[in-house]
Amino acid sequence: MKYLIASDLHGSSYYATKLDEIIKKEKPDKMILLGDLLYHGPRNHFPEEYDTMKVIAILNKYKDSIIAVRGNCDAEVDQMVLEFPIMDDYKVLEVDGLRLYLTHGHINDKVPYQDGILVHGHTHIYELSTSYINPGSISLPKVHDEHTYIIYENKCFQLYDIEGKILQKIQF
Predict the structure, then answer these.
(1) CA of 102: how far to CAs of 5, 13, 14, 122, in Å?
(2) Going by C-beta distance under 8 Å and a sequence separation of 6 or more, which residues neighbour residue 18?
(3) pTM
(4) How many Cβ atoms are within 10 Å of 124's Cβ, its own excluded?
(5) Which residue spans within the chain are E strands per DSSP?
(6) How far is CA 65 from the centre of its chain?
(7) Which of 16, 33, 92, 162 is the most exposed place for a label (fewest CB within 10 A)?
(8) Residues 55-107: pLDDT tens digits?
């Protein structure tokens, strides 16, 4: 099964459109969205082409394929317009014998997990290791300049920039 993992879209219709193009190209079976989908938050600048209505329309097209968790900028009002659940603080996903603990990372970045991989966004800083995966931010990267996402398939996580260049890879 193929998964696309992204985080911290923050209402950017420009990067939601880029994500839509990536989805059409990669054709993942499921998408994992690690929160902060619509609102930019008080500590962030407005992302490029801030337009939550366009973002809602793009994301809702994939409502049956999205697995999402709540970010610190996500609220109940966001759930009223999104047609897939976003209000869980974390989820556990078993994939290819790997246990993935999905969370945004703002409540605490150490959800109760054993024998698994913590997968979270929030920091806007990408990282791949054997115990921790962070896709960075597709719209508002910090530290690194690249706007990034991850493709998971066959026990391999590959970090890409939005132009499709592989930046990092880890195989389990």
Answers:
(1) 10, 24, 25, 12
(2) 138, 147, 162
(3) 0.94
(4) 23
(5) 3-6, 30-33, 66-68, 90-95, 98-103, 117-120, 126-128, 132-135, 148-153, 156-161, 166-171
(6) 13
(7) 92
(8) 999 999 999 999 999 999 999 999 999 999 999 999 999 999 999 999 998 88
